[in-house]
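Blinded run. Sample ID left blank on purpose so nobody reads anything into the name before looking at the predicted structure. Input follows.
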Amino acid sequence: MNKLVLFDIDKTLIDRSICHHVAFSYAFKKVYGVTVDICIINYAGMTDPQIAVEVLKCVGLDENLIKTKLDECMGAVVDYFKENAEKEDISALDGVKELLDTLENKVIIGLITGNLKPIALEKMKKAGLSRYFQVGGFGSDNINRTELVKTAIGRAKDAHDFDGSEVFVIGDTPRDIKAGFEAGAKTVGVATGRYSKEELKDSGADFAFNNLKDKEKIVDIILENS
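Blinded prediction complete.
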């Protein structure tokens, strides 16, 4: 297959997970001894490690200290999520399964997410989406989102004989769009998060939609010249 389509998770494929959100506060208290919520920053489109660093800097912690304990903090985030996610209903947003069904077996489908890999995979399992995704770039791979796109492309080349010629990144934030652009991908913005279609276009998205229910137009863009 000569096309790779990489989807963001939160607010693109699913609504946000409260359990994932609370997991950060749990980890910050356990590892750093501070009480803080990630809502003090605009974390949309950030990787999980990046969220932790930026939040903890905001409450006055030294960046070197933060990074010394960052792996432990991310481990605590995963532990909390795994212990509590079973109580949470995580479901696909409207149009997601229909779009994935149409793309399946026509392109390589992957994830590009700031979520740590165990959290990302559990979210996909609970939403009934696991079977669609063949590769991924995760927050546990790198703190920088652009590098996650490059990682996912590399994995597609290694595992699926992908030639790297045509990559699409689909996400709901300007950070998704920026990462896709910097990695040489075409970008599709979806206004299912905090940003409007116009804001996503202004951030540089090649294409923008209100949501993923506009299946025919999105598929046409991806499969053009196939």
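Unblinding after everyone has recorded impressions. Strands lie at 4-7, 108-112, 135-137, 167-171, 186-190, 207-209.
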